[in-house]
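Reviewers of the previous submission asked for a worked example of the structure-prediction workflow described in the proposal, so we include one complete record here. The input consisted solely of the amino acid sequence. No template or homolog information was supplied to the procedure at any stage.
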Amino acid sequence: MIYPESFEEKLGFNQIRAKLKSYCHSPAGEEWVDRMRFSSEPEFIRVLLKQNLEFRQILEKAEAFPTQYFLDATEWIQKISVEGNWLDADEFLRMAYSLETIMACKNFLTKAAEIYPELFRMTEPVRVTGALVQSIFSTVDDKAQVRDSASAELGRIRKKLRDEQGRLRKLADQIFRTAVSENWVPEGALPTIRDGRVVIPIQAEHKRRMKGFILDESATGQTVFMEPAEMLDANNEIRDLEHAEKREVIRILKALTDDFREQLPVLKSAYRFLSQLDFIRAKARFSVEINADLPILETKPEMVWYVARHPLLYLSLKGKRDVVPLTIELNAQQRMLLVSGPNAGGKSVCLKTVGLLQYMLQCGMLIPVSDRSRAGIFQDIFLDIGDQQSIENDLSTYSSHLRNMNVFIQSAADKSLVLLDEMGSGTDPDFGGAIAQAILDALLQKRVWGVATTHYYNLKLFAGQQPGIRNAAMRFDDQHLEPLYILDIGKPGSSFALEIARKTGLPQQTLLEAEKLVGKDLAGFETMVRSLEKERHELSEKIKRMERQETELKQSLAKYQTLSTDLETRKKEIINRAKEDAAQLLKNTNREIEKTIRHIKENKAEKKETIKVRKNLETLTQQVGEAPKKEKKPEVELKEGDRVRITGQEGSGVILNIQGKNATVQFGLLKSITKLDKLEKITATVEKEIAAKLRSAGINVHEKRTQFNSTLDIRGKRVDEVIGILDQFMDTAILLAQGELRILHGKGEGVLRKVVRDHLKTYKQVASIKDEHIERGGDGITVVVLK
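From that input alone, the workflow returned the following structure tokens.
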């Protein structure tokens, strides 16, 4: 049950119907939109949603699904159904084209049966064959004319007709030349046709000089159009042949129509399939436009929605600003939600979003929520929203609300969804609040599911104490007095009435008097609500800040561990190399000392030889002392904006600022404070060194540059494949410092183009994105210019 009758208009579903109709190719598809109804059958809904999802995937992949000749065959089938009626040649030709489309759709879905199983099941009743189409094309040509070969009699008649027309033209030319030679014909005039008969134009003063019949005259009366007596028989023969041709054509079309009358069941099922595809395609296009998806479908009532958006609001704000998504949860323990908050804070939008998305889902449409959301099936949806004052029924706004409440209490059950906007409003606040609380209690006793909005604090207290219902609030910036449109579940919201009144400029004395009239209890409750909201917000920000810090700490720890391991490895390598050098040096030294002693002994310690040997030892000593020393590199002054790296590493960054001996460096997404003496400026030599290391790691920049193609073709790819391919292509292009790139995605429905361009906007290195020149592909190719 859907209540009230104006349910669709109040939630805006009539606008969605209009949108779907604009996407249909045929009136038959539009009729499916009109017949779309709310269902509570889980399996039926599941099939509709799967069909919608599968066709959305076809559009997203930009597959070559047939889109032409989605024609409405209703009138044709009505004509064929009546004995003695026939379709004309043009109708048969258009039917042939649409039957070809039906067969092409069936072939496409048959080949992709494993990918699109629900759409494939729709093809099972379709029995159209190529023979049926061929029977049309063998009778009617592509100019919607019945072929000469359609029957032997028609071929004979048309041949004779052409012969007679040729003989008549020769006769007319002969008579016309005679009339011209006699100066009977107006200057520049030629033989023409009047009433289907060939005539000669003659000046009025010479009309009695030619034997024949006057069939017409010019507007001025100066020229008459005569059928010469010699041409009378030929014109009559042609007229008879034309009538015979027409009779034969009708006979042929009647016979063909009789053949199709025997195929009426086949035609009806085929065109039902085509119109249903048209309708599903329209739903899929709308799903793509609003970023709709298929949630996890439950057979029982449930509502756990993530990133839920109002589709009409999303479309109206598209390109202007983002719609703040809702996260909402109703379960068996907490079936109702009481939403409070300031005016214009988003309460009614929240309620309408719940009602519209649930209604769309149970009409078989995908909804704009995350695919990890869970959505249940309700038997009924009851709505009370807006001003329903009725002059005819003599009902006030509040009376109409109470009438609705009576219907809800009498009819709603444990599988009903009730949506109540501004409960208790429209009458005395004390009595209105009390009645609203009693109604909520009655609905809770019946285990009804629902969402209600209110300003009444007694209802907020009731929701905070009563099992089965929870408070929720639309978040509000109390400093700037602006709504944030974020739904917080678990706490009541403040109306911020006094603060908003203060912002509008009401006198301070008036506001103080209002605070006194409100009373300490209510003011204290509002203060407590705001205090809780502020504490919750601060706690939320603190948690986020701690999560960020924890993430940064983990990254720093991982980086430290990597550096520590690298340093330890290098330390061991240096020590081992130093030990080897020292051992070799010691060996050489011992060898020289032994050689020196032997030389002194052999030369019996002559003074000259001793001095010579001592010099050799001094030279060796200098070599030993200089061995550990390394060549000192010339110092390079670093400044802000320089591109640098940590000495010995390949990663590079940019110096943001310098303080004393430390520098803050941006390495990708991370900032790091590093000693200046550990940094090395990126120069041509350093770049060669990095390139050499990249080559040693298997990355050959020169080879990549020679093999790189600046044009990327992603036509036919799925959306989930495109992002990875595009990232790899962009990374290589940026590494190779390319200037201009081209991405071929095709035109289709524009899904791939949108995905590609939205993703390219996330690259800081992209300077511009535009269509290719219209002669070289237009909007089927995206041209990307890199900075």
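Residues 388-395, 520-524, 627-632 have pLDDT under 50 and may be disordered. We consider this example representative of the routine output the project will generate in years two and three.
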